[in-house]
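Just curious. Protein, please.
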Amino acid sequence: MDGLSRRDMRRVRAALETELSTQPPRIGVVGVSGTGKSSTINSMFKTTLPISHTAACTKNFESTPMELRMTSGVAKDESVKLTIVDAPGLGEDVTADPGYLEQYRDNLPTCDVVLWVLAARNRAVSLDQQYLQQLSDFSSKIVFGINQIDLVHPMDWSERINLPSEEMEANIAGIVHDRTERIQTITGAPVTVTAYSAQRGYNLEQLFTSIIGAIPETRKFIYDALKNFSFQDFIPVAARAVLDERN
């Protein structure tokens, strides 16, 4: 923005504010049932979506409004709203999949970027591959995350420093390499794959960075100001209202 006059800066700011209010940033979180999509959203964005270890909780696309305040750029000090979208898990039930896939096709076009969540200990990715084939129209906006890496053999995670052991780290690297190769056979193009643990809050920073980095060029200018943010800077709208009231 260097070299712009104050008048031009005001115009740029107005255009950005209009875009943010009419088409706020929208991030989708999708994938096969049981991989920890809702847990990922809860860990990364401080939300309280219901989760279950025995049955699927999300039956429809559910939008959670978020809010943050910009600290730099032309939108400095502005309150910016964005939406995190939690999708129903695919593969939960053969009778439910057609309806879920229809929801995916209806909702994914509205998302700027989509995080596809896989589970580290699930070596079978044929379901993911099949669904990716059916949703190939959206492959350019999808980044991949491998959740639950704290459960990788030999499961000797260091509680003290919140890091995997050397053996776990080597196994995790092997899993990332394997999943990357198998996903790319479907997409036909390089993909971004990040290993993380929603339960441990591990590597969420890198996951957030990969999400922001995958925004389409036509919308990147909206997210430029977010690059200086950590995922820890996000505050749910309801929580922001409470904080504002206290202040």
Q: What stands out?
A: Helices lie at 6-22, 37-45, 97-107, 126-134, 166-187, 204-213, 220-223, 237-246. The radius of gyration is 19 Å.
